[in-house]
Design brief:
This protein has 356 residues and is of the alpha+beta class. 40% of the residues lie in helices and 29% in strands. The protein has twelve helices and eleven strands. Strands 6-7-8-9-10-1-2-3-4-5-11 form an eleven-stranded antiparallel β-sheet.
């Protein structure tokens, strides 16, 4: 059994509510897995500490804030708050009607005082908090990598481009560099207000669209999030040392197609637009698109975003693709200057345009 399967059974194991076969599997696993032994110790100690706190409260003595803080810290190390309570609410002999009421009182108190950990928040609430957290982001950097299906390895390992961006939100400036690894091209942009300086193999319009598409303010819009269905909670993960909530949602195909049509309508010439729209319609109706989000547990700032395109069965094939964007260096000083020489003239290879 995998560790995550064992974790789901540990509370029942402590209550002697697993069958003999499950018990043997768990105990055999615990013999060789320190991680799961520590998980078992954590659940057992947290439940015991909570039992003692409830017992103290039942005697008319309010546990100290240190006790509640200790319990909170233990609970926050778990993926699910309710797993910590599952053993307590499973008919232990000491759990009288009065104790049940006390458990409910404690839960209410934890909500009111803010001690209840954020791990009980729904994905929708966390993503909403991530939208709000954007208002505190003044600058950030990103690394954006895209991959296609590699026939030689039969997996999604063929990196087709890499883009790096620095964004000064407050100053209205960005610096964007993109390298096409599969076909060997490069372009670079510097945006300062409405002035966009460009060099390399791309038009100003298309690269602005590309840069904006994977910014936090774009992928966390309510319109974008409304395209997600069947949002599932995945195990928490660390991104560059930051503990993150981790969610995955399936994109509504029809809404996605309409978004793609609207996006490319502003890029393609009219003579090519209908042909492209027909191709979009055919391609995306046979595709499945999923998106993943990694949101910081302390500040709700997005740390990573991933989009995976497979066919409708979920299989990876020739039409599959993947994009992963990592966000970092939040609110650090970023200096972005126009590519001008000392006299104020454009440097060689650069051009400038005004965008609305």
């Amino acid at each position: 059994m995998k560790c995550e399967d064992i974790h789901k059974l540990l509370s029942a194991y402590l209550d002697d509510e697993v069958n003999p076969a499950e018990r043997k599997l768990i105990e055999d696993h615990l013999l060789t897995c320190e991680k799961c032994r520590e998980e078992l110790r954590l659940i057992a100690s947290t439940r015991e500490e909570l039992r003692q706190a409830l017992s103290t409260k039942a005697d008319g003595v309010e546990p100290s804030i240190q006790v509640w803080s200790s319990i909170r810290q233990r609970i926050e190390s778990k993926n699910s708050f309710w797993e910590q309570f599952s053993g307590i609410l499973k008919k232990p002999v000491w759990l009288t009607a009065t104790s049940v009421i006390l458990v409910l009182i404690v839960i209410g108190a934890l909500w009111r005082t803010g001690i209840l950990p954020d791990s009980v928040l729904t994905p929708e609430k966390v993503l909403a908090k991530a939208q709000t957290a954007l208002t505190s982001v003044q600058s950030y950097r990103t690394i954006d990598k895209a991959y296609d299906y590699d026939p030689s390895t039969k997996d999604m390992s063929l990196q087709v481009y890499q883009a790096e961006t620095e964004t000064d939100v407050t100053g209205g400036r960005f610096h964007f560099k993109k390298e096409g690894l599969s076909i060997g091209y490069f372009h670079e942009q510097i945006g300062i207000g409405k002035q966009v300086y460009t060099r390399g193999e791309a038009s100003v319009t298309s690269t602005v669209e590309e840069r904006q598409e994977s910014t936090p303010s774009a992928i966390l819009t309510q319109k974008q999030l409304d395209m997600l269905v069947k949002i599932e909670v995945l195990p928490d993960e660390n991104i560059d040392g930051v503990a993150c909530f981790h969610y995955r949602g399936t994109v509504d195909t029809e809404k996605f197609i309409q978004q793609q049509k609207a996006r490319w309508k502003n890029i393609f010439q009219e003579t090519l637009l209908q042909e492209f729209i027909d191709n979009v319609d055919k391609t995306w109706r046979s595709s499945k698109v999923t998106q993943e989000f990694w949101i910081g547990k302390d500040d709700y700032v997005i740390r990573q975003w991933k989009e995976l395109i497979t066919d409708v069965t979920g299989e990876v094939g020739d039409s599959a693709g993947m994009e992963i964007v990592k966000y970092y260096d939040f609110n650090v000083p970023i200096v972005i200057e126009a590519p001008l020489d000392e006299s104020g003239a454009l440097l060689p290879e650069w051009s400038v345009a005004t965008v609305e």
